[in-house]
Every structure is written in structure tokens, then in C-alpha cells.
């Protein structure tokens, strides 16, 4: 990235800042990211949502011993009667955490609980519901097989195997898996610091009285929410007027304290007059018109050492561009080389959609399970990029490819699921 972004991009054959496809923009962005390098040790619980900075190898087998998957009776399958019922004498009990110490001989079995170590001489467990107990013996029918209800040592993790590679984002199951190895601390990359501010003379902050023609700044709240979900350190710099002096101060201040700067507003054709020269002076920033709707203007590059994203001001466009460009970039910057994409799935569209070919569209929709068992999507009524309510009502984007035109009701469309994921 420290190579000249503006020059490198414009040297590419098919580089057209005024008509940049979503995929191409994503690729340019990916090529100019310098992920966080600093590492720190964290107690396991605090590492949720953080990215591992080193590979974890299993120091032991998990489980450490063969054990029972069921409450039942452990025995040796050599005793199985191929036809007719098998009868075995109960010689003792094995509890989880309290093994049966003796050897189990021919014709014998041990009462065993889930998780208890398999007694010597046993290789199978018949579940208690299938065993008939009479006096100090059991009998069961011939369907029971060798190795049944046996959990093998190392079945979950084998000693020496790679449990996670560096760059893995830690989820709840991962914390448990690491705990199963007895590890209480993990080495992770430090938290990414993301600073943001809104630009616009028309913006008022909450607590201020709205003047004529003013609107409350909502972008800082959606941005805060989206960033919080990613687990980054958030630095909210407030609202900055469309004034070159104030914008310069804000950009210089954020560049000194953050890894990433996000701004909203001020990058559209009619508005970039202040931002363009400033960003040219303080760093290297390209201004793109992305072939997408909503979210056409986007600025990307560096201000000082910080990565910079200039998002459009429209509240819906902020969210769409965040999910399409910023989210992936932040996950990479956090230390994940290959972040999982937001799932994209086919669904039946229950209403006609209007679209002109030439731009990728991200219409807002509600994905629902219909009575006929199929997943269907209903577009939200008002698709204007200023109507933030459409994002609140939606649980998915209907992604319409650049080349595609109108969609008839009943056609299959691609949806990106937002609920609970982002
Ligand atoms: P801009 O990209 O600055 O031209 O802004 C486009 C539209 O988004 C205008 O209607 C702005 O009033 C609106 N807008 C810009 N920033 C915000 C914000 N932080 N909160 C709410 N609306 C905004
Ligand atoms: Mg503006």
C-alpha cells in the first residue's frame, strides 16, 4: 500500500475510476491493506471475536482416553451372541471421573456412565435402554455391534494436530475447544482502532436543537453498531462541518490515533471539492464511482499511516458500502487473511423488481420461510437510499448482478442474509 496507490491503480489496463465494478473495487482494496502486526496475550474468555496471532497445536489427545458415549454397560464384543440374546454378569461400575479399576473377563460387563473411562478388556457399550437387568446380570438382543457407543481417545483432537492456524477468528466453540486442551490464554492480534466522523453542514448531533434544514446525524450510530459487531476499538470523532480547516484538523488527528478512518458524506461529485485536495495533501486517496446502487461514490486510500474509507452520506449507502467493502477490509486488517463472506443464497422473489442493467443493486428485502417450505424474499416498499427505515425493516439484501435487468415475480434471486450475521 505504501507504494503509490493512485499510480498503481491507474497503471492497470482496465482501471476506470468513473465506472468501477463492485468486485474490482473490492480487489483493489484487498491489495492495499496492511494488517495489524502487534500481538498480545489474553485470557481465553476475553479473546472472543479476536484473531489468533499464532497457530495452536494440540498438546494432548482429546479425549485423553477411550470412554463411553452413553449410560449403559461396557463389555467385550467377543462375547456377543450372533443369534439370540447375549447375557453378561455385572461385576462393577465405572463413573465419569472414577474408573473401574479391575479387568473385565469373558462373560462379564461393567455398569458405565457417559464419559467414564472404558474398563480394561471392554470395547463396546450397550445403552441402558436396550439392556434388561435381572439379578446381577444383563441380557440384550443381537443388534448390538462391536465398538458401539465407544468414544475413542483423540477422536476430538489428536496430539500434535493443528487445532487453529494463525489468522483464525475466535468464536464461542473455539474458546471451548481451546479450553478442552487446558489452555487458559491465547496470543491474539491487538484490537484494530477505527475512527470515524460525519461531514455535513446540515448535521446536528443528538442533544442539539434542529435548525432549519438540519437533520440529526444518524450515520455515526449505524457505523457504531456495525463496528461494535466486528469487535474493533471505536473512536467516535463526532460531526465535522464542510470546512477545509476543520476537516484537515479532524483528518490529521484521526490519522495519528487510528488504524482506519471512516468518514461519511462529502465524497459525491458535487461535494468532494473540500475533501479531494485535502486528502491529496494528507495522503493518497482515489475517488471512485462504483457501478452499484446505492453507494456510488467511494473514496479509498491512506491518510498518513491510517487506511481511509470515504463513504457516501446517504444513510442506506453508508450501510451498503460498509457491508460490501469496509467489513471485509476490517476483518483482513484485524489479521484474518481470508474472512468468510456474508452468505449469499438463492431465494424466490415474490414481487417484480425494477432494474436497469449496468450497476450491481442491493435492494432491501425480507427473507421468510413460506408455508410451502421454500425460502422467499419480499422487497421492502421504498428503496430510496435516503430511507434508513428500509434497512431496519430488511433482514437481507437482494443482490442483483451488474448485467441483470428487471426481475419477474417468482424468479430466483440472490440474497445476502444480514440478520444475526452482520
Ligand atoms: P452527501 O454524501 O454528503 O452529499 O450526503 C448525501 C445525503 O445524505 C444528504 O441528504 C445528507 O443530508 C445525508 N447525510 C449525510 N451525512 C449524514 C449523516 N451523518 N446522517 C444522516 N444523513 C446524512
Ligand atoms: Mg454532505
Automatic annotation (TrEMBL):
Pathway: Cofactor biosynthesis; molybdopterin biosynthesis. Its EC number is 2.10.1.1. One of its GO terms (biological process) is Mo-molybdopterin cofactor biosynthetic process. It is an enzyme of class 2 (transferase). It holds the Pfam family MoCF_biosynth. The keyword Magnesium applies. CDD domains: MoeA (cd00887). Its cofactor is Mg(2+). Residues 195-332 form the MoaB/Mog domain. Keywords: Magnesium, Metal-binding, Molybdenum, Molybdenum cofactor biosynthesis, Transferase. GO terms for molecular function: metal ion binding; molybdopterin molybdotransferase activity. GO terms for cellular component: cytosol. It catalyses: adenylyl-molybdopterin + molybdate = Mo-molybdopterin + AMP + H(+). This is molybdopterin molybdotransferase.
Amino acid at each position: 500500500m505504501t507504494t503509490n496507490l493512485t499510480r498503481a491503480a491507474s497503471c492497470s489496463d482496465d482501471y476506470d475510476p468513473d465506472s468501477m465494478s463492485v468486485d474490482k473495487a473490492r480487489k483493489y482494496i484487498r491489495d492495499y491493506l496492511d494488517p495489524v502486526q502487534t500481538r498480545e496475550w489474553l485470557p481465553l474468555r476475553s479473546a472472543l471475536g479476536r484473531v489468533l496471532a499464532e497457530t495452536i497445536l494440540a498438546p494432548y489427545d482429546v479425549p485423553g482416553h477411550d470412554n463411553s458415549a452413553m449410560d449403559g454397560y461396557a463389555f467385550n464384543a467377543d462375547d456377543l451372541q450372533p443369534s439370540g440374546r447375549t447375557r453378561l454378569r455385572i461385576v462393577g461400575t465405572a463413573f465419569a471421573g472414577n474408573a473401574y479399576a479391575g479387568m473385565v473377563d469373558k462373560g462379564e460387563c461393567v455398569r458405565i456412565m457417559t464419559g467414564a473411562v472404558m474398563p480394561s478388556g471392554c470395547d463396546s457399550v450397550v445403552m441402558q435402554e436396550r439392556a434388561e437387568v435381572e439379578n446381577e446380570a444383563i441380557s440384550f438382543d443381537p443388534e448390538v455391534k462391536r465398538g458401539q457407543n465407544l468414544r475413542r481417545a483423540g477422536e476430538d483432537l489428536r496430539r500434535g494436530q493443528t487445532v487453529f492456524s494463525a489468522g483464525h477468528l475466535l468464536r464461542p466453540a473455539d474458546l471451548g475447544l481451546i479450553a478442552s486442551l487446558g489452555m487458559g490464554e491465547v496470543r491474539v492480534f491487538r484490537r484494530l482502532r477505527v475512527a470515524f466522523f460525519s461531514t455535513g453542514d446540515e448535521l446536528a448531533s443528538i442533544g442539539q436543537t434542529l435548525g432549519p434544514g438540519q437533520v440529526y446525524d444518524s450515520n455515526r450510530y449505524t457505523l457504531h453498531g456495525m463496528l461494535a459487531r466486528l469487535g474493533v476499538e471505536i473512536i467516535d470523532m463526532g460531526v465535522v462541518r464542510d470546512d477545509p480547516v476543520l476537516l484537515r484538523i479532524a483528518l490529521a488527528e484521526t490519522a495519528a490515533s487510528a488504524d482506519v478512518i471512516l468518514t461519511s458524506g462529502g465524497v459525491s461529485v458535487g461535494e468532494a471539492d473540500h475533501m479531494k485536495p485535502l486528502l491529496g495533501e494528507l495522503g493518497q486517496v482515489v475517488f471512485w464511482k462504483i457501478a452499484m446502487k446505492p453507494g456510488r461514490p467511494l473514496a479509498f486510500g491512506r491518510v498518513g499511516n491510517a487506511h481511509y474509507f470515504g463513504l457516501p452520506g446517504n444513510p442506506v449507502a453508508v450501510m451498503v458500502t460498509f457491508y460490501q467493502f469496509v467489513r471485509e477490509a476490517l476483518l483482513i486488517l484485524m489479521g484474518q487473511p481470508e474472512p468468510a463472506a456474508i452468505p449469499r443464497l438463492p431465494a424466490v422473489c415474490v414481487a417484480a423488481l425494477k432494474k436497469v442493467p449496468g450497476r450491481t443493486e442491493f435492494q432491501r428485502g425480507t427473507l421468510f420461510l413460506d408455508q410451502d417450505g421454500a425460502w422467499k424474499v419480499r422487497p421492502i416498499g421504498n428503496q430510496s437510499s435516503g430511507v434508513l427505515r428500509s434497512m431496519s425493516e430488511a433482514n437481507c439484501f437482494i443482490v442483483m448482478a451488474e448485467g441483470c435487468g428487471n426481475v419477474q415475480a417468482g424468479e430466483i434471486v440472490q440474497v445476502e442474509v444480514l440478520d444475526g450475521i452482520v
